[in-house]
Fold LysR family transcriptional regulator.
Amino acid sequence: MPELKAPQLAQLPPLQAIRVFEAVARHLSFTKAAEELGMTQAAASYQIKLLEERIGSPLFLRQPRQIVLTEPGQRLAPAVSEAFSLLSSAYSAARGGADGVLCVSTLLTFASNWLAQHLGSFQLSHPSLAVRVDTSNRVIDFAREDMDIAIRSGSGKWPGVETHLLFKADFTPVLSPALAATIGGVHEPADLFKLPILDPTDIWWREWFALAGVPADELASRTGTSMGAQAYEANAAIAGHGVAILTTALFKTELAAGRLIQPFDLVGDDGHAYWLVYPTARRNVPKIKAFRDWILAEIACA
């Protein structure tokens, strides 16, 4: 076994000060950091003072109602966050197995129409690992937010993270059979203009009609409500309120049950997809590895 070199610990500041800095930088609040670490705000401020004296430069700008990282603080924060992530990963690997809490950030429609329908099999396989799901459309900053994994929609090109393709975010019109029956059925793309169109401002509509070779100028005169999520538009379509344009991979149950029908095989693709995302430095964390292996296998079998 090769000889291990002793780390240059003499050049490191006190670990407690580093731990406090990581928490304050993540929360941008001395109060919240102190509560998380079980210490007083004065004690947290003292640890930051020790660290700033060791570095020789302020790490935070104290403003009346907030604090912000200085330039040295901005350089230090990502490295400290990654170091703690690596330490946590090594500790988890040493213990073996995946347990604790897995925090997943995902889009509302993916959560309600895919994850909620499949997550039970993951929990059966990993009973000691609790899953907490947070739904949001914004891009998660793993360095500042308490999230392990995210499901994102986009190009898949984000710095500092590992990405795994889940499925394409393609799109096509769907509607309820009852609504289609009101005009004797939908036989050609132009027939859709005889019906209410949910969110006619959605760019997917113009792209899909262009693929179908049908002018879409009429969309500009249509009024409609933008519901902000495919799940809501699907519910409106099932209720017969109009035609929605959706990613069918998220509505297989509704299509299979006949609550929705897809009148045309024509599917649009703007290059976006759904991706599994997590910090590169945490790719070997047992709970992240367990979820990654499960979801990729689950989607491959779907």
